[in-house]
Give the backbone structure.
Amino acid sequence: MISIADIKQFFKGEILVNEPLNKHTSIKIGGPADLLLLPSDKGDAINLSVYLQQNGIDYSVIGNGSNILVSDAGIREIVINFEQGLKQIKLVDGLVEVESGVMLARFVDFCIQNGKQGVEKLAGIPGTIGGAIVMNASAYKYEISDYIVDVEVVRNGKLIRVKKQDANFAYRTSAFLNDIIISAVFELPDGNIDEMQKTRIEYLQKRNLTQPLNYPNSGSVFKNPPGNYAAKLIEDADLKGLRIGNAQISEKHANFIVNLGNAKAEDVLGLIQTCKEIVEQKFDVYLELELKLLGFGKSE
Ligand SMILES: Cc1cc2nc3c(=O)[nH]c(=O)nc-3n(C[C@H](O)[C@H](O)[C@H](O)COP(=O)(O)OP(=O)(O)OC[C@H]3O[C@@H](n4cnc5c(N)ncnc54)[C@H](O)[C@@H]3O)c2cc1C
C-alpha cells in the first residue's frame, strides 16, 4: 500500500489511520479502514482519484454508508469519503450543479428553495449525491436519474463527464460502479414551492410509518425481484423477526435488517444467506443483494 508520506505529497485533506468504519455506516457495523482519506475540496478529490487509478492502487469509496455492509475485519485498502470536502451546491443558468458529498436531504431542500421540482420524494433517503447516483436511488416511482444532465467522474485515471444517456441507469444500478463520482448537473422543471414542501413532508411521514427508523439499518437489503417484493417473500417465508446475534430481520419491514446493539457483519451475512436460501427453496425466487458488501474479498 502507498505510504502516508507519499499521499501527503499531493493530498491536502484529512488522513485517518485505522479508522473504525462502524462510525461511518448507518447500520453502525464495520471494522477499521487502514486509511480513510477525506479530501479537502474538489481539486484535492480529483488529484487523489486520478493518482489512485493511474497507479493501480486499490481503494473503496463510501458515501454516507447507508447502503453498505463493511466486514468485521474492516478494509485493508484506502477508503475515500467526500462528505467533508465536496459539499458545494449552486444554481447556474437554471441548472443545479452539486458535488458528490452533498447529502440528498440538503440537495432536495436546495431545489425546493429555488423552485426546482422533481426530487421532493427522495428527501428521506439518507445518502450522498455520489451514493445516490451510483445506486440510482429511487422512492415512490421517482429516481435520482430522472433529471440528471451529466455526471463528472474519474474513470480509468481521467476526469470525464458522462451524459445521462450513457450512464446505463436502471433499477438500483448505473454505469458508475467502478468510477469515482465528483459532481453532477441536474435540470429540473420549475414548480410551486409550497406544493413541493407539502409533498416532501407527506413522503417523509410515509417513510416513518413503514421503515424501522428506530434501529440502525442499511436500507433495503435485497432488490425487489421482477413483479414481486423482497419484503413480501421474506415475510411469507416466515422469516420476519428472525435473529442472529444482535442482527434481526425487522419486525416492521422484512427487507430491512436492523442492528439491535453491537451486531456483527457476520450476523447480518447469516441472515442474508438464510433469506436467500429459504426464499429460493419455498418460492423458487432468487434474491439479489441491493446492499453493497465491502471488505469481504473478491467474491463480494
Ligand atoms: C433508513 C434508510 C432508508 C433508505 N431508503 C431508500 C430509498 O427509499 N430508496 C433508495 O434507493 N435507497 C434507500 N436507502 C439506501 C441508501 O440510502 C441509498 O442507496 C443511498 O443512495 C446510498 O448513498 P450513500 O451515500 O450512503 O452511499 P453508500 O451506502 O456509502 O455507498 C453505496 C455505493 O455507492 C458507492 N459510492 C458512494 N459514493 C460514491 C462516489 N462519490 N463515487 C463512486 N462511488 C460511490 C459505494 O462505493 C457503494 O458501492 C435507504 C437507506 C436507509 C438506511
